[in-house]
From TrEMBL, chain A:
Signal peptide: none annotated. Coiled coil: none annotated. The lineage of its organism: Bacteria, Pseudomonadati, Thermodesulfobacteriota, Desulfobacteria, Desulfobacterales. Belongs to the CPA3 antiporters (TC 2.A.63) subunit B family. This is Na(+)/H(+) antiporter subunit B.
Automatic annotation (TrEMBL), chain B:
It comes from Desulfobacter latus. Pfam families: Proton_antipo_M (PF00361). The keyword Transmembrane helix applies. The chain crosses the membrane at residues 6-25, 32-53, 73-92, 112-129, 165-185, 205-225, 246-269, 281-299, 306-325, 337-356, 377-398, 410-430, 468-494. This is Monovalent cation/H+ antiporter subunit D family protein. One of its GO terms (molecular function) is NADH dehydrogenase (ubiquinone) activity. It is a multi-pass membrane protein.
Amino acid sequence: MKLLSLIVVCLTGGLLLYGTADLPDWGDPNTPASLHLSKYYIENAIRDTEVPNLVTAVLADYRSIDTMLETAVVFCAGLACFMLLRDFTPKKDHYYRHVPSGVILHVKNPDRQIIAGNEFEDMDKEWLPPDTIIKTVCRMLIPFIQIYALYVVAHGDFSPGGGFQGGVILGSSFILLAISYNLKYLLKRVSEKFLGILSAAGVLVYMGIGLAAMVLGGNFLDYEKYAPIFGEHHIRALGMLGVEIGVGMSVTAVMVIIYINIVSEGKHDEGL
Amino acid sequence: MIHYPAIVVIAPLVGALTAGILSFVEERYAYPAALIATGISCAAAVRDLIYVAGHGPIAYHMGGWAPPMGIEYRIDTLNAMVLVLITAIAFLNLAASRPNIKQEMPDRRPSFYAMYLLFVVGLTGVASTGDLFNLYVLIEITSLSSYTMIALGDRDRGPISALNYVFVGVIGASFYLLGVGYIYIKTGTLNMAEFATMIPTLQDSTTILTAFILCLVGVFIKMALFPLHVWLPNAYSYAPVGFARIVAPLMTKVMVYVMVRLMITVFGLDYIFIKLHIADTLVWLGTIAILAGGVMALAQTNLKKMLAYIIVCEIGYMVGGAWLGNNLGLTGAVLHILNDGLMTFALFLAVGNMVYKLDRVQIKDLKGLFAKMPWTMTGFVLAAFSIVGVPPTCGFFSKWYLILGAFKAGAWHFAAALIMSSLICAVLFFKVFEVCFFESPDTHVGHGSDTHGRHTTVAIQEAPAISLAVLGIAGISLIVVGMYSKTIVVRLIWPLLRS
């Protein structure tokens, strides 16, 4: 079997080498790849779309349906993590912390529960007291990370960045919150329901922009058709900003959904 | 402006997202949302088909950008037909499988509908796009959703078969993507129609040949052509019923459509049959797939596994037929995409009904099933006849074109394999019928299936009415499509091959 795999690998490698025989030279400016489409994009993108960042123009305008479907892939990944990992079985053991004294109670009988209030706090087995230094540093960092993330989303059409990158940064700020405090704390701030809705709503924003263009008489995702409402000026840039925000929403939510489900094995307990 | 090509794909996506939101807000509306979305998609696909049959292909420019710059969705008679098949099966299956889904996954039903619709988005997109890279993105959606669904199936073996599928599927998709990369570096375009205009000047390029082989191997892995089929039987037999009923008839067939599209539209018949000399090899591969699939199906004791191997066998029909190198073979292959989709759908509907009542479908557990589930078994028999190729069911007609094509091309081995596989399928199904009809269930029954005790045997225990109604529709459509296959060939398939 190993020998067979080796033969297959060698054959594939040979095929790839055979394919390179006819490839254009490395760095040659006169290749079809740089003369045909990319030439058009470089020469006309700014005139067509009024967006200085050509990469965004290609991704979010010329090939916007690709990007929409990629966002749907991201949503699909989040949904997959939720469906496969989320554990709905109720916990058997319950742990409570008596807040004034710090004593921990372990209740094994699932019928007898202490109502968590001011005196007692509901907690999980894996709970560890968060470190004050880490907590303080992260508490100061997180707002800046989030502002930066919003900047990256909003500036996608002017400078490197965009919804995917900004969304990842924003999502990572939430993950940092979960790491420095704990998972329960994060879920108190942003509930699972909110994340689930946000992940779908992001793609819906993207699609909504496309569908509204359809209603206004254009093709799907044809931002030009918004001109009567928002004016001719930078109309395509505006459309791109809209879809980038949608992408950012989805990516943020999906990052957090994947994290919380993988790290707690779907139980959403305290701990990391 | 005709928006139907976009609506076919967008409606299920809107449905998926709405169902995703509703699964957190108001669970009970997720199902109606999914049903409406597939319904709209189906109506749009039918509208597409009617328009295309009358007026010729539609090119829909996404974002308003003309093809080489933007992405084009191009609908001609071939993919209009495939789209109607996909959306109709998606809609009917959603109606039929609701009881099964309720039974199998009570706690994550609403998200199941969201994932199901994402799968439909992928399939309809693959069938309608005219852009090579967009095709890859859509294959990604299709694969990702099917990995998830399969992992949600059988509690013990679902995850492991899904994992195997992930490994193999990712390799397949990567091969395809690598091929697209080679195409782009040589031509600078991703649009199928524009690439087709460049291919005459690039006939001698080794890069294009490599690209073609890579794309083809990727598609072969995804469609489970014989030596690359190992992921399929476990994945399809351990998937939840509600999903197995759509993935089994459609996934492999849509990949066959992609192969036909690559042959006809992208690389062109001149290039693949006159310039390259691989057609004979591929007909042999098809022949081997038919025989191997048939023989492996004979060895199975589980009904679902047996059907999964029959799918492997049917893939051989379509690959071999498409590569025969004449119009008759290609017609047979394209017609068989439609027919095999319907036949497999009907078979899996019937098996799903059995699973609903029996839980296990080892062939030996099916004793006395004709008495217990007469309607389900009627549908099963009809679909089985179609697989075997008994007229007037549709399976006969596509097989007829394939055999004629094989004779015309002088591919006697392929013709022999087709006839052999009909015999093997006949043996397979009559083995099942024998158990279901003649063996009485009062002999000892193993492993605590539902059939314990004599009193349950006589009473009719049918699946829910909606599942039976859909099975009825599928069964009737097998005969109707069979009777109108001449019209389908003349109106939809030949215009495509002539151009």
